[in-house]
Amino acid sequence: MISQKISTNYSEGVADEIVALKGYQDSQYEILHASRTVNDYITNKETSSVAAKEYAKLLSYLPKGPLKILDIGVGMGQSSALLASKGHEVYALEPNPVYCDIIAQLAKKMNLNIRTIEGVAEDLDKLGEQNFDVVFFNASLHHCDQPNKALENSYNLLKQDGYIVLASENYLRPWMSKKRWYYKLEHFPEQMGHYGGNEHVYYNWEYVNFLKTNRFRHIQLTPSAYETEPLERLEVILSKRINGVRVYSPSRVMARLLYYMTTSAVLKSTFLFNLLSRTSVVAANFIGRKASKL
């Protein structure tokens, strides 16, 4: 049962994304029903979700709980389940009504403090809640059609000195233009691993500028926990299929593994991470604060 619905109309891209995910729904209900523990659910390889691993590390940068957390763009809710299992009060925002139903059933089954909200971040001004300690975007700001509106709403919902976290966002390397990226997405979607979602893309410095524009301060870039695990990343791309067809060819898998191993080594150096993440060469998570004094 969905706790609240804040969006009544979706953009064409978001509506298409909901339709594109229908083919996965039966298997995802099966994962829910087969899971006996929260850990079973959040570590299931069939979902290819890296959110739980990222969130587990990101929590170390945040105040001790229990916290009131808004989790945005949660998909099947693995990230929300992890947060709630650690004693936090979680509001899970997701536009897909089926996923909201899955999360609600999960919360009931596992006795988790999760409130499901059907909608998009651009409509969070309709939520009727305030004083969140943390707002997480679960690889979801790049799905927002109006990222500045989504961040403005997030700022208003946070308590003073509250935190915003952008986790696992899609990002552009500096050697590729946006025009080229969108061309490839349109003409070679399988090569891009595109499942039909509402996709936008930004360079890392654009995410930093989004946060600054919307009054967030003390912005920190942190390494991706997922990108420090080359074999785990390899498992994810090996499992990726679109319409039953593998997304990555054997040659691309080998090239990716080499890249993953190199990236993992680089991320162990604070200096190299700071240099390469700021220039959008490697992935980063972004943490900002609603500072009491600007």
Automatic annotation (TrEMBL):
Residue ranges constituting the Methyltransferase type domain according to the UniProt record: 70-166
SUPFAM superfamilies membership: S-adenosyl-L-methionine-dependent methyltransferases
Pfam family, one: Methyltransf_11
Gene Ontology MF terms in the entry: S-adenosylmethionine-dependent methyltransferase activity
InterPro entries from the UniProt entry: Methyltransf_11, SAM-dependent_MTases_sf
Gene3D superfamilies according to UniProt: Vaccinia Virus protein VP39 (3.40.50.150)
Protein name in the entry: Methyltransferase type 11 domain-containing protein
Source organism: Spirosoma telluris
